[in-house]
Amino acid sequence: MHSVQMSRDLQDDATAWRRYLHQNPELDYQVLNTAAFVTQKLASFGINHIETGIAETGIVALIQGDGGDGPTIGLRADMDALPIVESSNNPWSSKIPGRMHACGHDGHTAMLLGAARQLANTRNFKGTVALIFQPAEEDGRGAQRMVQEGIMDRFGISRVFGMHNSPGMEIGKFGICDGPIMGALDEFDIIVKGRGGHAASPHMNIDPIVIAAQIVVGLQTLVSRNTDPMESLVISVTKLNAGEAYNIIPEHAQIAGTVRALVPALRDFAERQIYASSQGVARGFGADIEFKYRRLEPATVNHSTETALAVEAARKLVGANSVDDKVRPSLGSEDFAYMLDARPGAYIFIGNGSTASLHNPEYDFNDEALLYGIGYWVNLVETALAR
Fold first, then answer.
1. Would you state the pLDDT for residue 230?
2. Closest C-alpha to 251, from 306, 295, 196
3. Nearest-angstrom CA–CA distance, 280 and 286
4. pLDDT (mean) for 15-34
């Protein structure tokens, strides 16, 4: 069993790695410096099998255990940052204007690097660990591309695990649940097609702005009056655009937004009912709509056996009372869902303390969480691949 104290000699190095990455954030697939940094560190740990250029800038590195033949499990960390101007005012704040690690991927990468060094030193397991460093999580496509490029079959990965920091959860605590733990993400666009004209003569036009307003109000009742309140569905209108002049009723109005759900049936419901409701309102005014619906990311769904393994590994590290195995799912989305669609596995939250929320300009990953993340990864490997 690995304890937090056993990783204390990694504290300074892991913190230095994390802060270096924080100062040098990169976006989407363009994580060139980050990938080079990770590759150099992995090689310095004595890891010989390192493959780069997967999904453009992704990395998979393999560590063989000393316990003989066995299965291969994957551990995934995301590497990309966000297009946000940082305002944390820390000495290690972003050096690149308009970019920052506002979701803690710098910490995720540093934790997996720390675990890689520990596992490469001890190799107290049988089989193989595949370290997956993924680009473009925020883009929502990096995990999907790595799966499409065949990493599961190519490296013989039988199970896959992920981890994300959670602001508001105490340092040293973990949260996980069986089944859906993060929501699916869809996007929709509605173009209301009216008839434009002079603002002084609204009776001669078909005003798409009035129609769009009615549609937006109507969409609010799809959840509150048409779905089970015990199920999770969120429909959010995030764009409403129309017109350019004070005295002209425009031809069109645009509505756009997102749908988040934990089960596929609610995605089907949302797509069907958003269209039906919007079209009904528009036709009642003599207008029509153009409707587009895009399914971006599936729900992140933990598998039962792998969730139990994750809980066991975390409790070995911090004790039973510090691991909530029935944590409330989040309706935020996570492209690790594609990896869990490809292989059984589990996704866990790790406490980040009382920091600013994710995607906030004042956010920063809490370096006190690093050793807990490293310890969890090591315990997970030694539990799942016990000699």
1. 62
2. 196
3. 10
4. 98
Q: From 19, 51, 16, 23, select the one nearest 35 (Cα to Cα).
A: 51
Q: Enter the DSSP assignment of 110.
A: H
- Return the residue matching tokens 């990395």: 59
Q: How many CB atoms lie within 10 A of CB 113?
A: 26
Domain count, the chain: 2
Residue in this structure with the two tokens 């989040």, named with its chain if needed = 330
- CATH of residue 13's domain is 3.40.630.10
Are 96 and 58 contained in the same domain? yes
Is 8 in the same domain as 38? yes
Residue 222, domain CATH? 3.30.70.360
The token pair that represents 330 in the structure block: 């989040």
Q: Which two tokens stand for residue 229?
A: 């309140």
Rounded to an integer, what distance in angstroms lies between the CA atom of residue 130 and that of residue 74? 5
Rounded Cα–Cα distance for residues 181 and 334 (Å): 10
φ, ψ (nearest 5 deg) of residue 274: -60, -45
Same domain, 316 and 271: no
Contacts of 342 (CB under 8 A, 6+ apart): 147, 152, 160
Percentages of the chain per state (helix, strand, coil), in multiples of 5:
35, 25, 35
Coil, helix or strand at residue 204: helix
Q: Is the pTM of this model over 0.90?
A: yes
Per residue in 233-282, pLDDT (tens digit) is 999 999 999 999 999 999 999 999 999 999 999 999 999 999 999 999 99
pLDDT at 1: 63
Do 71 and 17 have their domain in common? yes
Of 297, 317, 345, the position where a domain reaches its end is 297
Structure tokens at 7: 């990783």
pLDDT at 194: 97
Of the candidates 223, 182, 173, the one whose C-alpha atom is nearest the C-alpha of residue 339 is 182
Question: The domain containing residue 320 runs over which residues?
Answer: 4-181+299-384
Q: Which of 266, 297, 328 represents a domain boundary (last residue)? A: 297
11 and 95 in a common domain:
yes
Q: Say which residue, 2 or 25, is predicted with more confidence.
A: 25
| Number of residues that make up the chain | 387
Q: Are residues 111 and 70 in the same domain?
A: yes
Q: How far apart are CA 185 and CA 288, in angstroms?
A: 26
